[in-house]
Amino acid sequence: MAKIIVVTSGKGGVGKTTSSAAIGTGLALRGHKTVLVDFDVGLRNLDLIMGCERRVVYDFVNVINGEATLNQALIKDKRIENLFVLAASQTRDKDALTKEGVGKVIEELSKTFEYVICDSPAGIEQGAHMAMYFADEAIVVTNPEVSSVRDSDRMLGLLASKSRRAENGEEPIKERLLLTRYNPERVTKGEMLGVEDVGEILAINLLGVIPESQAVLKASNQGIPVILDEESDAGQAYSDAVDRLLGKDVPHRFLDVQKKGLLQRLFGGKE
Amino acid sequence: MSQADLLDQDPVFQLKGSMLAITVLELAHNDLTRLDQQLAAKVAQAPGFFSNTPLVLALDKLPSGEGSLELAELMTLCRNHGLRTLAIRANREEDIAAAAALDLPVLPPSGARERIIELAPAAAPEKPKEPEFRPSRVITTPIRGGQQIYAAGGDLIVLAPVSAGAELLADGNIHVYAPLRGRALAGVKGNVSARIFCQQMGAELLSIAGHYKVAEDLRREPLWGEPVQVGLTGDVLNITRL
Ligand SMILES: Nc1ncnc2c1ncn2[C@@H]1O[C@H](COP(=O)(O)OP(=O)(O)O)[C@@H](O)[C@H]1O
Ligand SMILES: [Mg+2]
């Protein structure tokens, strides 16, 4: 049975797409057949981050409308075995994502994939609702600031009440917190919430803390998921998160301010 | 039964027994001149001590043989000092007659009061019996921002955190055995004896029977973040440590 995982947040620009791409890629790297599904109809940037935007012929909405088969629409990753992308439509309306249509596609994907990663749009409207409706697990992407934490909290309420599992009275969606764009220095200065503060407010399992990193922007500009940049702090943090997702007990890193060495202090260090 | 008969039975009023704190002026002597002086002295000590204060004039402790009392004059005297007579308490025939002439109610002598209050509700028409036991609503999962939980007719018990932006409502009490960061409104149908209990008070709003405090005030509370109970005294919300 496939695991349906939604990457969601409520708030926009917190790192959902970045995280979907990194985690999906990490799962495929570890040998699990994975598909990334972009629910952000109208914006479509998962394919950009994955570097496959030039190979999009058919998209998610085409499949829902029966204009293309799933096999026609799935884009195979060039770098990694077992990794596929189902792009969002740039031209269609968000309401094209009907419960019935999405349900059919998810069901079909479940037959051949181990992991279905649903990259949710921002907000709590139709697109976001459809992305989480069929989920077994949720990765709630949150930035260490009050408004993002509030929106995530709200989304957790919807996960617990408006999903298929909730409506059928099944075991609830497994919720995990992914704290992204974490900047320990700013936390120390009191400009951002600390990981303990966010954990206390949201009271869910912590999947990982991804540091604020130049590597993310660099990777997304090149169309390479940041997890493939093994040297980078963000890449390593995502890698740890994937291991935790697979049940490994990995200690959290990048939570504290890095003490800069003398040379680094004199000449300035890379992030 | 006809439609009209049914309408006739629809109660337009309700009788309620109530304990009123009321001033009783117990007259020890039939001496209005001295009474006048002594009342004036009392008012001089504490100006505004009496102002339209409702009063029961107790004449039942007057020693026998002090002669007949000018009730109207006594009432005027009291009124001049800010005391307004609602009724008298008396046992002498002549005093009762004087009160009747002034259309003033007469209460039985001291000691019989308890009986009146017992009698009042008994005189009320019998209401259908309310169910004695109303189950509480119990919530074990976190209540998130944007969610609202209402316990109709009873208590609400929450065993998980209540987030900012969440709202708890109950006709009865509210218990939160976790941090309370949202809004909690107990006694929403007007039950002034409802209370709120929580393990960590970080609420956005606390309300009992419509009397509330908002976060701006709550954050100044020394008990912010502490385990507290919240109750209503008069129309003041009292927050005390649990
Ligand atoms: N850990 C990070 N460090 C620095 N920038 C980041 C990080 N995560 C995301 N970003 C940047 O934040 C922006 C929004 O990210 P994105 O994944 O598109 O968010 P969402 O899908 O939630 O709208 C992008 O410009 C991305 O490069
Ligand atoms: Mg996105």
UniProtKB/TrEMBL annotation, chain A:
What is one GO biological process annotated to this record?
negative regulation of cell division
Q: Which InterPro entries match?
A: CobQ/CobB/MinD/ParA_Nub-bd_dom, MinD, MinD_FleN, P-loop_NTPase, ParA/MinD_ATPase
Q: Known Pfam families for this protein?
A: CbiA
Note whether Mitochondrion occurs among the keywords: no
Q: Which GO terms describe its cellular component?
A: cytoplasmic side of plasma membrane; cytosol
Give the UniProt family note: Belongs to the ParA family. MinD subfamily.
Q: What is this protein called?
A: Septum site-determining protein MinD
Naturally occurring in which organism (per UniProt): Pseudomonas mangrovi
Q: Gene for this protein?
A: minD
Automatic annotation (TrEMBL), chain B:
The record's subunit annotation is:
Interacts with MinD and FtsZ.
**TM regions (residue ranges):** none
Quote the PANTHER family the UniProt record gives.
SEPTUM SITE-DETERMINING PROTEIN MINC
Instruction: Please give the name of this protein.
Output: Probable septum site-determining protein MinC
Source organism superkingdom: Bacteria
Q: Which InterPro entries match?
A: CAP/MinC_C, MinC, MinC_C_sf, MinC_N, Septum_form_inhib_MinC_C
Function noted in UniProt: Cell division inhibitor that blocks the formation of polar Z ring septums. Rapidly oscillates between the poles of the cell to destabilize FtsZ filaments that have formed before they mature into polar Z rings. Prevents FtsZ polymerization.
- Gene3D superfamilies on file: 2.160.20.70, 3.30.70.260
Q: Which SUPFAM superfamilies does the record cross-reference, listed alphabetically? A: Cell-division inhibitor MinC, C-terminal domain
Key word Cell inner membrane present: no
Q: Septum formation inhibitor MinC N-terminal domain spans which residues?
A: 13-84
Family the UniProt entry places it in: Belongs to the MinC family.
| Organism, scientific name | Pseudomonas mangrovi
The protein's matches in HAMAP family, at most eight in alphabetical order, are given as: MinC
Keyword tags:
Cell cycle, Cell division, Septation
* Residue span(s) of domain Septum formation inhibitor MinC C-terminal: 138-239
Q: Which GO terms describe its biological process?
A: cell morphogenesis; division septum assembly; regulation of cell division; regulation of cell septum assembly
